[in-house]
Write a structure and sequence with these properties.
399 residues; alpha/beta; Rossmann fold; nine-stranded mixed β-sheet; 17 helices; disordered C terminus
């Protein structure tokens, strides 16, 4: 029995050893990455009213089109701005090639973003270790919608003079737009909203039940340790069995191994204990709620009237097509479009959650129709286009 137990725990010992060897100094490793696409967003900082500095990176087009509004790219929970740039032919590059000024953000708790004051200085040190940062329980998704989004909009206005932006969010980067567009007095500053794999309602499935278990385990582990930095050694290799966790993020057959390694090495972050706690009822009730559970954001989707494009992957486990349909059909916008990506829709593969951005086929199948949709809704296009179906609507099976 003793030998059996030793063999059973040997992989865990290997992971622990890798963590000890690679976690110290990992923040420096990211800052010194060979490509700017792999480094934290630190070209400038957007200051929030509650004491955060959010890292920003600007991707400038070679031939700017002044008739097009800037694009903000917002990553999801537990990731950072490099989410958009760890592949070679990435979305920011394609947007810039079409004349858009692009702003990539590191949301609070990720990348180069940090608190002002003593907590921020302490956390700069902790980011070189496997220890969880101070104050990770202090902020929620509500705070990101209330403070981060206005700070980002103010930063873009200072840089470009533009009052309005196109917002493209993946997963939570799209979900946090629901409370913002429903209740913020600045909602009108979002000219167009592209939501990739973000839903306000969840259909109960066996995979969602597995996510509930994973969420509980993650919350326990994050009491003292940095789950993002514990995963950092996986850029060099993953142990057997981890594909059961990976499949929630991406479909292995659709994503190049180098992208996966970059994900673990440069993109994975701590999700934030406060945000995880807020999202726990979402996985159980099926509705996105405020942190204090007094507001049901899913029930207020009819308040959203901005032109909205929802992008759903047929192989997405976290935000599956039925959940996307429920969310889409509840939106109040008269101009809304749902695009589904999978074999049934004529594409090369069924797209998983991060495949929508990371898949080797995304630059040809996902990005062009997304940018085409934006092009038709820029200020100059509104007055010059001849025909644009309104509302644009797809309910699909069960819609």
């Amino acid at each position: 029995m003793r030998d059996g137990r030793c063999r059973r725990y040997r992989p865990l010992s290997l992971v622990a050893a890798l963590v000890l060897l690679t976690a110290p100094g990992c923040a420096s490793m990211r800052r010194n990455a060979s490509s700017p696409d792999l480094r934290p967003c630190a070209e400038g900082f957007a200051a929030t009213e509650d004491g955060w500095l959010l890292g920003m990176r600007r991707v400038r087009p070679a031939c700017p089109d002044p008739s097009k509004l800037p694009v903000v790219l917002c990553h999801g929970l537990g990731l950072n701005g490099t989410f958009w740039t760890i592949t070679d032919d990435h979305l920011p590059g394609q947007l810039a090639a079409r004349g858009y000024e692009v702003f990539v953000v590191d949301m609070r708790g990720s990348g180069a973003s940090h608190r002002v004051g003593l907590k921020g200085r302490v956390n700069q040190v902790l980011r070189q270790t496997p220890i969880r940062e101070v104050g990770a329980r202090d902020w929620t998704v509500d705070d990101e919608a209330k403070y981060d989004v206005p700070a980002i909009l103010a930063y873009v206005r200072r840089e470009t003079g533009s009052e309005r932006v196109n917002w493209v969010g993946h997963s939570l980067g799209g979900m946090l737009m629901f409370p913002f567009l429903e209740f913020s007095p600045e909602a009108g500053r979002i000219a167009n909203f592209v939501d990739m794999g973000g839903v306000a309602m969840v259909v109960d499935t066996p995979d969602i039940r597995e996510m509930r278990k994973a969420d509980k385990g993650l919350r326990v582990l994050s009491i003292a340790l940095s789950t993002g930095r514990l995963g950092r050694p996986m850029m060099y290799g993953r142990l057997p069995g981890l594909e059961m966790i990976d499949r929630f993020y991406y479909t292995a057959s659709n994503v190049d191994p180098r992208t996966v390694s970059r994900f673990y090495g440069y993109t994975l972050e701590d999700p934030g204990a406060g945000a995880l706690k807020q999202l726990d009822p979402y996985l159980w009730t099926g509705h996105m709620l405020s942190a204090d559970k007094t507001i049901d954001y899913a029930s207020a989707l009819d308040r959203i009237t901005v032109p909205t494009l929802m992008i759903a992957g047929e192989g997405d486990i976290m935000a599956d097509v039925p959940s996307s349909l429920l969310t889409f059909n509840s939106l109040g916008s008269a101009d809304k479009t749902l695009l589904r990506f999978g074999r049934l829709d004529g594409h090369l593969a069924d797209y998983g959650h991060c495949d929508l951005v990371w898949s080797r086929n995304a630059p040809r199948e996902v990005f062009p129709p997304l940018i085409d949709w934006l092009d038709l809704r820029q200020p100059h296009a509104v007055t010059t286009r001849q025909t644009l179906p309104s509302p644009q609507h797809e309910t699909g099976p069960g819609g």
